[in-house]
Every structure is written in C-alpha cells, then in structure tokens.
Amino acid sequence: DKDGATIARGTVSPTRQLFILSTPSSPVPGTAPSSNSVCHLATRTPDLETWHRRLGHCSVQTIIDMAQNKTAKGMPIDLSTAPAKCDNCILGKQTRSSVPKMREGVRATVRLGRVFVDLCGPMSVSSKTGRLYAMNIIDDFSSYVWTVPLKTKDEAAHALQVWHRVVENQCGDRLKILTTDNGELLSNHVTEWCANAGIVHQLTAPYTSAHNGRAERLHRTLLDKARTMRLACNAPASLWDEFCATAAYLTNLTASSSLKGKTP
Fold first, then answer.
1. Closest-CA residue to 89 (of 194, 181, 186, 226)
2. In terms of Cα–Cα distance, which of 181, 176, 127, 170 is closest to 146?
3. N or C end of the chain: which has fewer CB within 10 A?
4. Is residue 197 exposed (0-12), middle (13-18) or buried (19+ Cβ within 10 Å)?
5. Among 118, 112, 115, 48, which residue's Cα sits nearest to residue 83?
6. Mind listing the pLDDT tens digit for each residue in 165-181?
C-alpha cells in the first residue's frame, strides 16, 4: 500500500498474462465461510488530483468549492493533500492572451432565452470521422454547453437546425434569441429559418470576435480541457472531437462562477 506494507503476494502466469495471488482464504463479512471463494477489496477516497483529472483538468479551487458546498452528488474527496503541479495543464492551456470578457445586453432569465453560437477550426488534423470544425453552443441562462463536430463549414446551418429541434423537444422551452458573428451562419437560408421559427437573430460587429465573448471563451474552455486530457493519456490528435465532446459533458457537471457555484 502507500505506506510500503505488502498486502498480497503472487506469481506471474506467462501463458495467461495474469498475476496469480497466493493468499489464504478468508470469509467475507456477513457470509458463511468458504474455502472456494476469496474476495480482495481495496478502497481509497479520491484526492484533489484524482478529481482534477476526472473533471477534465478544471481548476483546483473549483473542485474545493464543489466539495465544500456539496454541489454534486457522489463526490467523495480527500482534501488533506494539495495536488502536485499539473504539467499537462501547462502544456494544454497555455495561450498568448486571454479573451476579454465582454457582455452584450442583459443576461437571459429563462432557458434558451438567448443562445451564443460560434464555429472554431479548422483543426490541425482531421478526426477519425473526418471532422475538421466544431460548432460550440452555450445557453446564456444556464451556461449549458453543446459541441457539434462538422466536416465542413457548410454543415453548420443544417446541424444548428437539428440541434434546435432536439433541444426544444427535450426541454420544452423555445429558442428566442440566437447570437452569432458575421460568418458561416449569416445566409438567406438561416435568416428564413429564424423568421419562420420566430427566432431573433442577433449579429456581432464585423471583425469583433470579443462581442461574442461567451462563445469565444467557450472555445478556449473546451479546447483547453480537450487538449489537456488528450496529452494526459497520450492519445492521438485525431481523437480531438471525442475529447471535445467529453470536455462539454464534464463542463456541464462542473460548478460555474456565473451560476453562483451551481452546475449547469
């Protein structure tokens, strides 16, 4: 164990590629003694470093706040030791300069009251399924995020409409305001779709990405987590879309400062 004590001894089986434990049989509490079955059970409360990895390399302070405020169920944690410096975070999250936090208008008061959408890419390598782009979406009210991988930018409009039908059908709320930049989602097809669905399509000023700050910041959050997790397990770069999907999933389970410590 971690104190250096020997818990069990065994021999390697070259034909089965297993360790054969040679320990005396001991009865399992609450059951009748048996010489034919042995149960080996070892448990350890996860520490900060373990939860740092489990939650996609999010900040240590966020994990501590989640544990102390009991934000998430099923989160046993040992806070007695501080985690070591994470080299993967340094490699995966380094950046030239931060995206400025700029808000346009009043924050939405209901789900899907306002949604920010933006595309990022092309990535340096295509994914296993041939994707080169990602369309990231964030709900202004709940901070819930989605990431949709795309092969080309031309797929963005259709993918957004599919997402719109699924989300409205699942949550029962209606999309009211869609905020995008003057890019791929500015077309007659999208304009007609928004008009038919009663969606207000707001555009940011040309060449001013900071006006769509929530979407731009979401790019960095998801890509930083995806890059860091990929480096931590030495996975190929072609799995970037799977790591982005995992990063979005974990972001929705992580406490957010914009939600006063609650999870999306």
1. 226
2. 170
3. N
4. middle
5. 48
6. 999 999 889 999 998 87
